[in-house]
Amino acid sequence: MNEKIAFAERLAAAMRAAGYEPRPAVLEREFNLRYWGKPVTLQGVRRWLCGETLPQQEKLQVLAEWLGVEPQTLRFGEGGGYRVSEPRGTWDASVSAEERRVLQRYLALPVERRKVVAQVIEAFSRAERSDPGEGQAGEGA
């Protein structure tokens, strides 16, 4: 069987197992809610479901996380690869209790709200990088 068609069948089965109808409109909506890059078009996801193309690795990761399957299982099927098992890390000792609470609250938000928060943080970060001297003039005076 063609690997693209086999992937399409696994994707549709994973969608059904997760309680979603394997239709392009459903896949487009749910995927784009979770993907932080450029949105995927209806035609693009239709091509995944029809076995015409395979998603890029970063998109496969998002699909797998959303559908609750291992990325290599979604891409290659059962026995298609071995997972490198790494224990879930503990919080770095340099992260304060307040920072941990903020991160835990962030992670508890729905995906679409986390996306908005991440965009705000990214905007602040870009502004900070573009004007590194801001706020330093007059310090110590």
Spell out the blueprint of helices and strands.
Blueprint: H1 3-17, H2 24-34, H3 42-49, H4 57-67, H5 71-76, H6 97-108, H7 111-130
Features of this protein?
single chain; about 140 residues; mainly alpha; 434 Repressor (Amino-terminal Domain); 2 domains; 7 helices
Short description:
By secondary structure, this protein is mainly α.
Can you walk me through this structure?
- The chain is mostly helical and 141 residues long.
- The chain has 2 domains: 3-76, lambda repressor-like DNA-binding domains (434 Repressor (Amino-terminal Domain)); 97-130.
- The protein is 59% helix and 0% strand.
- It contains 7 helices and no strands.
- It has helices at 3-17, 24-34, 42-49, 57-67, 71-76, 97-108, 111-130.
- Helix 2 (24-34) packs across helix 3 (42-49).
- The chain is elongated, with a radius of gyration of 20 Å.
- It starts with a helix and ends in an 11-residue tail after the last helix.
- Residues 137-141 have low confidence and may be disordered.
Number of domain modules: 2
CATH level-3 fold name of the largest domain: 434 Repressor (Amino-terminal Domain)
How many strand units? Answer: 0
Strand percent estimate: under 5%
How large, in whole angstroms, is the Cα Rg?
20 Å
What is the C-level CATH assignment of the largest domain?
Mainly Alpha
Strand pairing plus helix content: what structural class?
A: mainly alpha
Which ranges are low-confidence, i.e. pLDDT below 50, for 5 or more consecutive residues? Answer: 137-141
Oligomer: single chain
Helix proportion range: 55-70%
CATH architecture of the largest domain: Orthogonal Bundle
